[in-house]
């Protein structure tokens, strides 16, 4: 207490007794009353000062307050009969509780005539009135205040406000009393102070100075108004408003359930548990019919006034089965709130079935539970159980209404979170099924990839792919469909399939994007939107790398340019023509060709990697280049380093696709090329040269098949093609490729010969003898190719 307070510490006899009944404090007023100095009595049992056989509860009662007349021993051997007022004082933090014991000491000061503190008119007020003197000691109370305090004026005269109630809020009252006393200005104390024996009552104190004829402040009058109903209504409204703000901040079921538990503790209960029914398998809706006991509930969240929730029997994530009777099952079967109390025996049968809970209930003094079903949109989701411990009143009907209001708000949020989670899991499963599970091993590139769905908006339409092409070439593609959810994932799947189909016919990157743009326009029109083309949109980057020439052709449609990391060089962005996004229709695409040294790393990604609210795109590009600059033999490690450097730990706002590819060159020793004259008679020498080359490569086991394929393809080129004609053999460890190129743009087609036809069986024979065959158009003609599996030959 501040030393500026005008308190006479000897005006009351005050002692503090700990929970075991030992005196721990003794003031000057107590020494004046009984003659014992503090050093003689502190540390002694308080009962040693009592005369006669007195119940021990006199100075350590079971409740929170006791008052009565007792006989105490004086130091001189005599006795003193006094009226005592004792309060249980509970610590604000961890610490032992104690008792404040006070008794007024009769003052010797005569009351002067006309004392303003003896104003009868003021005491006649229908409000509860208390009058304090200039030492802030209680001088008078009216009959209404005496009823409120359950104490008579004769007994309490001379006590301070803190001694009168024994509550921490009384110190705030004393500060306001002092302000009125020193300033002479009245005030309304907006602090609601529970007083009296009933803890459910709250009071608003209005203070005014009392002056004498000369205008001097001689004391303070306090008018207490019962604002219990308004106070409780305000508290309930505040809790409902707080619940609407704090519950449902995310679309996570566990987080939402925890928010419900946290809002109710300690405002409504000392311990709150939230248990939910497990969702049905295969993503179906929760059952809407009546439940049957026993009921299995999974603990999702709980909260307690005790740190760590030691009273909890079930841990979060665990499934527990509740029979009837039990508060959880009874409330779910009945479909409404059920309040059960230990005093009425409502919990006895259930606790007999569960001794662990019975032990916890006894340990923490649990006396009342309130089970509130969690229901939304006609579906029962689970139950919230609110529990109160000792020293707190049982639940009232108003508490039940408030709990139902808060739980109803939370139920809608939990149901929304469940529906979102189910839709997100479905979209994610669809997305994963449409993305490549593993990237193919090719002789052209070594590749690694990552895909991360958005943390809040869910999966979207980002995709990546590595597509083997003819001639040991490989296509790399990264794309992004506008929007999120199942529709975006489905559109992504259609575009990815279209890209693989177009890549299979060996279209150039700019031509492929043109065909893909037409497809997106048609998809937008089929969606039936009034907006027309552009409603379904996407971006895409398509690149083709040839390990023989070590050249890469790229084109993009509104997509970020890739970053290139040459061996021993600095990462930098490849400059490409921007190209319009897919779906606008009618606009051209351009491609660019660059030469890549062996070991060059290409980073292809979607905009979710570099576009964030925390920084601009240029800063993200700098971070990306820094992450790619660190040398690493593992592309998977590089992927993880890039994501760690650019993405926040709490999740990304947009989904992210990342594809890293390290180029590999095919040695010239694995490539053989012949220029073919326009003479059919030279086909036989060409076959001989092919066989000799296969012997050099130690691939003689494939000679028979290679001779037949080369003979057919070269003969067709001489007969139907245009010079110059070129034959090329390429091989790696698993495949031998035969390619015949000419300058004609006419493409061959497979046909079946009739019984008496002399020709028409050549390409059919090639198709039967090889793994696959095909043709591709080039800038100066076409190339017919066929792949022979070397492992199969062995």
UniProtKB/TrEMBL annotation:
Annotated PAC domain residues: 185-239
Lipid biosynthesis in keyword set: no
TM segment ranges: none
Taxonomic source organism: Streptomyces osmaniensis
Record-given protein name: SpoIIE family protein phosphatase
One Pfam family named in its UniProt record: SpoIIE
Domain PAS: 16-44
Listed SMART domains: PP2C_SIG
Keyword tags: Hydrolase
CDD domains referenced in this protein's UniProt entry, alphabetically: HATPase_RsbW-like, PAS
InterPro entries named in the record: Bact_Sigma-Reg (IPR052016), GAF (IPR003018), GAF-like_dom_sf (IPR029016), HATPase_C_sf (IPR036890), HATPase_dom (IPR003594), PAS (IPR000014), PAS-assoc_C (IPR000700), PAS-like_dom_sf (IPR035965)
Presence of the UniProt keyword Hydrolase in the record: yes
